[in-house]
Write a structure and sequence with these properties.
The protein is an alpha/beta fold. The chain has 18 helices and 19 strands. The strands form five sheets. The chain has a five-stranded parallel β-sheet, sandwiched between helices. Strands 10-9-13-8-14 form a five-stranded parallel β-sheet, sandwiched between helices. A five-stranded mixed β-sheet has the order 15-16-19-17-18, sandwiched between helices.
Length: 481
Amino acid sequence: MGHLPLFIDVQNKPCLVVGAGSIATRKLSMLVESGAKVTVLAPNSTEKVSKMSNEGKIEYLQRIFKDEDIKGQFLIVAATDDTNLNIHIADIAKNNGIFVNVANDSSAGNTLLPSVVDRAPMKIAISTGGASPVLARLVRNKLESFIPSAYGNLAHLIKDFREIVKEKFSSVDQRRKFWESVLQGPVAEMIFSGQEEAARKLLREKIKDSKLQDGVGEVYLVGAGPGDPDLLSFRALRLMQQADVVVYDRLVSEPILKLVRLDAERIYAGKERAEHALPQDSINSLLINLAKKGNRVLRLKGGDPFIFGRGGEEIETLIDENIPFQIVPGITAASGCASYAGIPLTHRDFAQACIFATGHLKDGTVKLNWKMLANEKQTLVFYMGLIGCQTICEKLIQYGLSSATPAAIIVQGTTSNQKVYLGDLATLPGIVADNNVQPPTLIIIGEVVKLHKKLRWFHSESNNEGVSVKTYASFFTKKID
């Protein structure tokens, strides 16, 4: 390792910046934000440097560098457009035991100023050892998006309670375990969701009753979306990577499952029609039992847990047992699959309403309010409608929709294996049978299906739209403006 990662207190310490260009200004801003007493040397200043000088944040001397300027400096930044001058400043600084950073030539100095993720009082510094400042900034940008801004609030909370925790727990190991339970449990999650007073109250309770550390855990009800891992929310990913146990369904794709913490216990609770790895009652009991053992339990469900995901039933049982929980919505299949198929669920010209319906009721039938469903100018989306596809199409025709109403069935939507089969209410059942369509699927019915050919943007590896050119063409004899 060429450089030792080190955070140094520069509060009120004299620091010299030689140069006033864009790079110098960027490093100057970092020093000012850290509380350094900064002097800038440059024959000409930028508007930003002049403004900082006028505001009293820095001292600006409008002249060139002199060797004696290094006297008494704690840190020097050489950032002129003269390479030889930068090296000269660095040599003098190093000979006098002064920290020196050289812009565009890290090897000439002895100090690096890294890219920083600022969650004050927590800071994360990223450096490539001078190999690529651009890469360091790109990594910083990625970390910025994954680390909630509320981490700073969490750090302040811990600081406020550190001495109290020291008095409560005599050993370092006890304190470590306690803080781990706080940082990866409900207290931290309350901070992240803006419930600071509730977090402080719970933390006081945990400190008062140390047994709470070994008590009830928490359940995370997380929507995994329709299949593409890029559609996960930041919160979903964070909880997936801190859970002790994951209870997952059949519709959770393998790429998403790989994002779960590697050492987490995995329990398959997959559900298929008339074949459940675990019945719903057993899943409810399992979540309760795992949480009561102190586990952080991830209940990972395809799509959104509150849209035909039975998430409400699972949460009811948790409430009855006083199990802490939180819910993270996911992109539901209707939204995800329709978007990836280029079929808008609503459209000013074709559909002013959208209805989500299940094609498979609790009793195994498809007894729906067909009179309400069979209306024009609306889009119908059927979940779990593969087995009942023929009944769905027949009933909609029976209750008034034209047999030529466009219809699509999307297979493995949003994944690299996505296929879109197009037809209408008269032909869709035959298309399903002829192509031996297998779940997971989603059925979309309505005039918006006509827009698929024009709006489709996602091309799966299979590159198979699943319909003949003749079937395709029948929908596009009239130009869509």
